[in-house]
TrEMBL record:
SUPFAM superfamilies: 3-carboxy-cis,cis-mucoante lactonizing enzyme. It comes from the Bacteria. GO terms for molecular function: selenium binding. Belongs to the selenium-binding protein family. InterPro entries: Se-bd. The keyword DNA-binding does not apply. It comes from Rugamonas rubra. This is Selenium-binding protein 1. The lineage of its organism: Bacteria, Pseudomonadati, Pseudomonadota, Betaproteobacteria, Burkholderiales.
């Protein structure tokens, strides 16, 4: 990919240089992000679904003070509505960490917030209305920082609203630079399905992995109706793709049945593997080169009882690559797996943290775990238990520190979250 290669090559070296350095941000963030929080995070920015009859009913970015030294610890300090409801979903920082991009799955709008000028009071600075018209893709899902650019992974397409989709690269001003279809043909002996969900990059190996979910028609259908439709249940992704990142070309397709979702590369120095979970299969899958150097993906163990479809959703890998927190939506559990041997993960802990739970974010030191509840507008379970919770992990037990009831606060349903810092002294620059 000519527009990315030179810049990405330079920052690939830079990211690799700092891979073993002391840092304290979320382990799922792009390695190309120029700033990494050191120590205690000050804020959590929560992208929140508007719900009719709850407050103003609008999607919004909610900011919470999470510094224990603050008199506002555990309190909502800002709420910025963007107007309307569009299935607010995921967010991601630009490489300079000054702006937060947030997407909606229903109308495919992308909102850009200034979170650098005053992180306690984000400002909406741009709304991208023409994403579908220019890219041909629907449902912006993953926002992944590149040098001066944003790589966006989508869930669907405007042609048939199905799962075949792709990725688009924008500059940090929001201008479309290029786009890439996910493979639908065969590579080797595996047939591509074209579906998309998450993406994650290992700069040292020039390797990008993408995963797969389902298209607009399915994710905008009420969950009970969807489950009873055999034809619709066949329209979920069953593959992951390994890309040559600098060339933006698919190299291998892996068969990973059951809708593989979040991708987490181990951050530990010397590790060369990634892990994902299949939502419908309730399995952990390891992606790693074999003895001959050929990348392979294989099922390395169950999450709960797959027969009960606990529906694993978000997960967070520990900074040392030896632990993995996994939230399962249907039973409201947060599970910890020992990844000391990633070939054979072992569940070592579980706790019911809500009637249903979705996103999980942990601090770099592994002592703090934040959990939110909302999955998708039409898939959320029929109850009012929507919250942001902070837990402390002492190595043996999760202890709840506080809970913000988003319905009681008239905010809506909390989905994705990102850490924020209030001062330059809390930030380590890679530049």
């Amino acid at each position: 990919m000519k527009t990315l290669s030179a810049a990405c090559l330079a920052l690939t070296v830079l990211a690799a240089t700092f891979a073993g350095a002391s840092r304290a941000d979320e382990t799922c963030n792009s390695p190309y992000m120029a700033n990494l929080i050191k120590g205690q995070e000050d804020y959590i920015h929560v992208w929140t679904l508007g719900i009719k009859g709850i407050g103003d009913g609008s999607d919004k970015l909610v900011t919470v003070d999470v510094n224990p030294a603050s008199p506002r610890f555990g309190k909502v300090i800002a709420s910025l509505s963007v107007g309307g409801r569009g299935d607010a979903h995921h967010v991601g920082f630009t490489d300079d960490r000054k702006y937060l991009w947030a997407g909606r799955l229903q109308d495919s709008k992308i909102f850009v917030f200034d979170v650098g000028t005053d992180p306690a009071k984000p400002r909406l600075v741009k709304t991208m209305h023409d994403v579908v018209q220019k890219s041909g893709f629907v449902g912006p899902h993953t926002f992944y920082a590149l040098p001066g650019r944003m790589l966006v992974g989508f869930l669907s397409n405007k042609r048939d609203m199905g799962g075949a989709t792709g990725m688009a690269v924008y500059n940090n001003k929001g201008d479309l630079i290029s786009k890439y279809d996910n493979p639908t043909g065969k590579i080797g002996d595996v047939q591509g399905d074209g579906y998309g969900y998450d993406l994650a990059i290992n700069p040292g190996r020039n390797a990008m992995l993408t995963s797969s979910f389902t298209g607009y028609t399915n994710y905008r259908t009420e969950l009970p109706k969807l489950i009873k439709d055999p034809a619709a249940m066949q329209k979920f992704g069953n593959t992951m793709v390994l890309w040559d990142f600098k060339a933006m070309k698919p190299q291998q397709i892996f068969s990973t049945p059951g809708a593989p979702l979040e991708i987490r590369w181990s951050q530990a120095e010397g590790d060369n593997w990634a892990i994902t979970a299949t939502a419908l299969g309730s399995k952990l899958w390891l992606v790693k080169p074999d003895a001959a150097g050929r990348w392979q993906a294989r099922d390395v163990g169950p999450i709960g009882d797959p027969a009960q479809t606990p529906l694993p959703v978000d997960m967070s890998i520990t900074a040392d690559g030896k632990g993995l927190w996994v939230n399962t939506f249907m039973d409201g559990k947060t599970r910890l797996f020992d990844l000391s041997n990633p070939e054979a993960p072992r569940q070592v802990y579980e706790k019911v943290t809500g009637k249903h739970v979705n996103m999980v974010s942990q601090s770099w030191d592994g002592k703090r775990l934040y959990i939110t509840t909302s999955l998708l507008e039409h898939w959320d379970l029929d109850n009012d238990d929507h919250f942001l919770k902070l837990y402390h992990w002492d190595g043996r037990e999760l202890q709840q520190q506080w809970k913000i009831d988003f319905y009681k606060e008239k905010l809506g349903r909390p989905h994705h979250m990102k850490f924020g810092a209030k001062a330059a002294t809390n930030v380590a620059s890679l530049r």
